[in-house]
């Protein structure tokens, strides 16, 4: 089918993500559901409201090590201070226990169950998380039930500790449960299911196979367990006028794919579902967690190795040719882990520049093409929207850094940092043209720029996170062109490769060793003394294995 990545198992990256990263354990393939399970049975419309008729059985929880963590940094006089009420912010981002609720058909029964859960976790700092399958329940009524049971939290958010999950009818019940388990952030996880027996609603709870869930999240067998080749993840907050354009464009592609929407505003519920139609999708309603936490959570939840991260002002092109190119590049370049579709930079040496869709003097055209003549180059880092990435590498690298923003704040710089981190870990970051219409609907004047106060906080976060990046990657990343990467008068332009930081040298050397000189980019020759020896060895190894691009 046009646009879908080739139907083969994604290659296993050859580089080590980190010496401290745990080695992924082998997993047992999940049995495929039978044909009889292809349609979820309709749940009864009436639920028992009398809490005395609800039986709750809580088994012993199972604990395992969490997913790998991203880099952390402590900054003197840090201006980004997250106030999370009487609890630490880690209590919300990394709860001790997650409850996955499935099979409920009334907000009242959900409320009763959440109240019982609250009774079990009365100690300070022990705030459980709830992942609730919405089924056929009304969104507003379900949210009100969560509010009554859990309260509104320190920000007045009803869904501070809960997520409401709605899926298309062509997603099997077991598939949805597995996805909800992957979404859960707790070290302990508890499955809570509602069933009917002689008119009574029995709330049964079981200790989850948390170890298996984490293994599946970190290193799944995509051929045996996951039916999709690509997952689209959309971070959304209250852009009503763009929902139809985004959802219908993806639906029209007709891909063997799934769409996950992180609806931070709990709005446009019906519009998303109608726009996506028969496209397999899951709608996750959360309490304004913002982009870093939203992307991290839904990448865990996703069912494919290839992930497309979109923002709510990215309008897809008529034909998803970028998927063809991305799949081919990922298969050809085992170390390539991230491809940006907006802009990217190299900030030092003769290859300095800000590249992408040309925009005056601010952005230069990508001067290099891949083996099939399509724009593509390696860069130090890329700007968010859209991203095409490998899920396995993303999770083992630690995902985006949550400390780059408080809940509800923009995470300015999280995209730069991840691109640099990949080079540090031995992977590669690339840039192409994906032909999305970006910043649609006047988004540059809305969102985090909609008021002077929000703009000031956005600018503060950007300056703070730039400082954090410089601290984390001291010696590895240096902005040699602070005057602007597109200004040839910058002193950083005149630096030879051997004098610039690895974050600028590695992509420059990778471009030189894989493709000939193109356009105005003055690439060094393969035999120059400035060539990076590590990339030289990598290039020779891949050439002998037949994995090189074949163009010099």
From TrEMBL:
CDD domains: Glyco_tranf_GTA_type
Gene3D superfamilies: Spore Coat Polysaccharide Biosynthesis Protein SpsA, Chain A
GO molecular function, one term: hexosyltransferase activity
Compositional bias ranges of the Low complexity kind: 14-45
SUPFAM superfamilies, alphabetized: Nucleotide-diphospho-sugar transferases
Residue ranges occupied by any Glycosyltransferase 2-like domain in the UniProt entry: 231-340
Biased composition annotated in UniProt, kind: Pro residues: 1-13
Pfam families the record matches: Glycos_transf_2 (PF00535)
Annotated stretches, region: Disordered: 1-52, 440-459, 508-552
InterPro entries per record: Glyco_trans_2-like (IPR001173), Nucleotide-diphossugar_trans (IPR029044)
Name of this chain's protein: Glycosyltransferase 2-like domain-containing protein
Record organism: Cymbomonas tetramitiformis
Lineage, highest ranks first: Eukaryota, Viridiplantae, Chlorophyta, Pyramimonadophyceae, Pyramimonadales
């Amino acid at each position: 089918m046009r646009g879908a990545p080739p139907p083969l198992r994604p290659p296993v990256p050859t580089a080590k993500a980190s010496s401290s990263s745990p080695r992924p354990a082998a997993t047992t393939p999940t049995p495929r559901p039978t044909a009889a399970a292809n349609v979820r049975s309709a749940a009864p419309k009436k639920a028992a409201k009398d809490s005395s008729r609800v039986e709750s059985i809580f088994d012993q929880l199972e604990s395992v090590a969490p997913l790998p963590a991203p880099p952390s940094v402590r900054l003197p006089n840090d201006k980004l201070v997250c106030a999370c009420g009487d609890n630490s912010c880690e209590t919300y981002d990394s709860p001790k226990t997650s409850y996955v609720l499935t099979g409920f058909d009334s907000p009242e029964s959900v409320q009763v169950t959440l109240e019982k859960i609250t009774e079990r976790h009365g100690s300070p700092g022990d705030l459980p998380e709830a992942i609730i399958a919405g089924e056929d329940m009304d969104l507003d009524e379900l949210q009100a039930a969560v509010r009554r049971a859990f309260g509104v939290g320190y920000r007045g958010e009803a869904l501070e500790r809960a997520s409401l999950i709605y899926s298309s009818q062509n997603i099997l019940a077991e598939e949805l449960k597995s996805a909800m388990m992957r979404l859960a952030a707790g070290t302990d996880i508890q499955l809570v299911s509602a069933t009917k027996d002689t008119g009574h609603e029995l709330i049964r709870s079981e200790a989850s196979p948390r170890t298996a869930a984490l293994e599946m999240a970190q290193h799944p067998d995509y051929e045996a367990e996951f039916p999709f080749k690509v997952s689209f993840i959309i971070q959304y907050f209250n852009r009503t006028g763009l929902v139809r354009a985004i959802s219908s464009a993806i639906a029209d592609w007709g891909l063997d794919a799934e769409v996950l929407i992180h609806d931070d505003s709990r709005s446009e519920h019906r519009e998303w579902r109608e726009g996506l139609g028969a496209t397999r999708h899951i709608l996750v309603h959360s309490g304004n967690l913002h982009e870093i936490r939203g992307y991290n959570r839904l990448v865990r939840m996703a069912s494919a190795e290839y992930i497309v991260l979109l923002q709510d002002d990215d309008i897809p092109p008529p034909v998803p040719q970028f998927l063809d190119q991305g799949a081919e590049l990922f298969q050809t370049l085992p170390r390539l882990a991230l491809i940006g579709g907006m802009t990217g930079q190299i900030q030092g040496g003769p290859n300095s520049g800000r590249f992408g869709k040309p925009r005056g003097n601010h952005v230069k055209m990508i001067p290099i093409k891949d083996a099939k003549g399509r724009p593509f180059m390696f860069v130090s880092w890329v700007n968010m929207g859209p991203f095409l990435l490998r899920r396995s590498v993303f999770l083992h690298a630690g995902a985006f850094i949550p400390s780059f923003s408080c809940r509800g704040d923009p995470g300015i710089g999280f995209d730069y940092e991840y691109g640099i981190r990949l080079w540090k870990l031995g992977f590669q970051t690339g840039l192409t043209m994906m032909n999305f219409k970006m910043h649609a609907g006047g988004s540059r004047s809305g969102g985090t720029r909609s008021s002077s106060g929000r703009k000031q906080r956005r600018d503060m976060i950007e300056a703070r996170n730039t400082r954090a990046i410089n601290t984390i990657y001291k010696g590895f990343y240096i902005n040699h062109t602070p005057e602007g990467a597109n200004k040839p008068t910058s002193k950083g332009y005149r630096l030879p490769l051997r004098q610039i930081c690895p974050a600028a040298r590695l992509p420059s050397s990778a471009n030189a060793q894989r493709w000939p000189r193109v356009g105005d980019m003055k690439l060094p020759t393969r035999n120059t003394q400035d060539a990076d020896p590590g990339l030289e060895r990598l290039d020779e190894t891949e050439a002998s294995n037949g994995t090189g691009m074949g163009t010099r």
